[in-house]
DNA sequence: GCGTTTCGTTCGGGTGGGCCGAACGAACGT
DNA sequence: ACGTTCGTTCGGCCCACCCGAACGAAACGC
């Protein structure tokens, strides 16, 4: 009765269902049994059994008559990012960078062909956007992502850029050749701009974090509205500060 | 062939196995198929199938010939704590508090009878301890936990303190009556001390975060070594600052 | 106050798939 | 070149996952 057919052989259906439920709860903040059963196309009793199991394990908690995500995921998430040397190396330095620039800063690593923010520092002028810790983004639409693409292996880059380049704004670079040209420029000067390529009205400056053996660990950026990110400040001073911070973080990451 | 027997009726075994694998990876940073199969008492092929499924979902990633936790957990963990109004309310204020006191600060909420740190601010004098984001602690062994116990419903307190009170140091309050007396004191003066009750050589000052309708949302604390946490500073000045911060956070949490 | 709806939960029964053991292939290290 | 150990694949058995139906509780409207 499943409409799928996308079952790779030798995979566990129950696990997929459990995580499907978890993700449903994540996307709705909290969910009830019937709602989940309807949305996922499973029976109420099945949804109930999964939730009972997840609750017993501590991964979901009851909130009145609904279920919410348990804080055990916080522990898992922390372990996941602690693996990355870049995380420890960037913490203090990013705070300094954000203070100096006065705009939001973020640290990104690549996973499964997408960029994941593992650390984020808010600036004084708190500007709400949709990016949180753990948010994933298309690499070609951000300054952090382009920094990464510019400095990773060509082989890996081809794997990542294999498919269609999604277009998020009118300025998104969705042509592969144009993107390669942009990456060459970034590779040459050592940092990347983002001029409203992901969100209209937002600009950013990013730079790669390189280990001492030239392998790329991830990248960092600061981002703010076009009203403040402009002129000499945006084109030379901020890039100077970002690349300097990236150098320091790279060094700290290699000696950890 | 399972040695357990602890299967509550109507729960999904495959889900338990999958999360068992995830937790094994967490505890070992990275694990291989055979290692997991041995430690969990399952066959290699079963472990393989679970890992294949988890990898397909993006919750584990291959690292050479081992598996590590994927950053998808970071997203889930962030959503789990974002549910708590206390998290947003405490961010800026805790940083200020830590700067003023000069010692590490943490924010705790209760889940399943244990305390979970959802935010932590390191101080200048970086002191390494074993507590991270997502760490769980016994409530009766910390200043945050005792603050919570002192101000939550009596009914809830009885549920939580039902079992044995684990003893972590010679100073841990492991007697129920003594603990109740301590809680009464805390309730009266509005804040809690921790004098080497969890880790020898560490002291802390904690205070509850109360919503305007007197319900408790969690608690905060600052903690440092006994060499610095002493005298008038520890006994009156720090408590003053902690309770003041707690008041502000409580107000911010109710109007969010 | 009573019908109505919708919630979460429990209960069996059927069968699909999860689990295992054995075999295979590759990568080391000696 | 050998032995060991890794990850992976392949069949088959039988258990447990999934479902549908029935139950109990709570919240609604008339």
UniProtKB/TrEMBL annotation, chains A, B:
GO MF term list: DNA binding; DNA-binding transcription factor activity
Top-level taxonomic group: Archaea
Domain IclR-ED residue range list: 72-255
Gene Ontology terms describing biological process: negative regulation of DNA-templated transcription
SMART domains given in the database record: HTH_ICLR
Keyword Plastid: no
Keywords: DNA-binding, Transcription, Transcription regulation
Pfam families in the cross-refs: HTH_IclR, IclR_C
UniProt-listed CDD domains: HTH_ARSR
Classification via InterPro entries: ArsR-like_HTH, GAF-like_dom_sf, HTH_MetabolicPath_Reg, Tscrpt_reg_IclR_C, Tscrpt_reg_IclR_N, WH-like_DNA-bd_sf, WH_DNA-bd_sf
Domain HTH iclR-type stretches: 12-71
Protein's name in the database: IclR family transcriptional regulator
């Amino acid at each position: 009765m499943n409409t799928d057919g996308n079952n790779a052989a030798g995979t566990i259906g129950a696990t997929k269902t459990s995580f499907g439920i978890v993700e449903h709860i994540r996307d709705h903040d909290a969910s009830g049994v019937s709602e989940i059963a309807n949305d996922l196309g499973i029976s109420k009793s099945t949804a109930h059994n999964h939730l009972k199991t997840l609750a017993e394990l501590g991964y979901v908690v009851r909130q009145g008559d609904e279920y919410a995500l348990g804080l055990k995921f916080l522990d898992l998430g922390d372990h996941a990012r602690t693996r990355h040397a870049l995380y420890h190396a960037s913490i203090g330095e990013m705070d300094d960078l954000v203070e100096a620039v006065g705009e939001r800063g973020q640290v990104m690593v690549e996973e499964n062909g997408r960029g994941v923010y593992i650390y984020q520092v808010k600036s004084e002028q708190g500007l709400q956007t949709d990016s949180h810790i753990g948010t994933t983004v298309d690499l070609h639409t951000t300054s952090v992502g382009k920094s990464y693409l510019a400095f990773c292996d060509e082989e890996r880059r081809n794997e990542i850029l294999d498919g269609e380049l999604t277009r998020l704004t009118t300025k998104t670079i969705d042509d592969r050749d144009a993107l390669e040209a942009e990456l060459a420029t970034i590779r040459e000067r050592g940092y990347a701009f983002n001029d409203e390529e992901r969100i209209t009205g937002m600009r950013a400056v990013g730079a790669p974090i390189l280990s001492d053996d030239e392998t790329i660990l991830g990248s960092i950026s600061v981002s703010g509205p076009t009203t403040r990110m402009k002129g000499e400040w945006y084109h030379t001073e901020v890039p100077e500060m970002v690349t300097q911070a990236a150098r320091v973080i790279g060094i700290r990451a290699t000696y950890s």
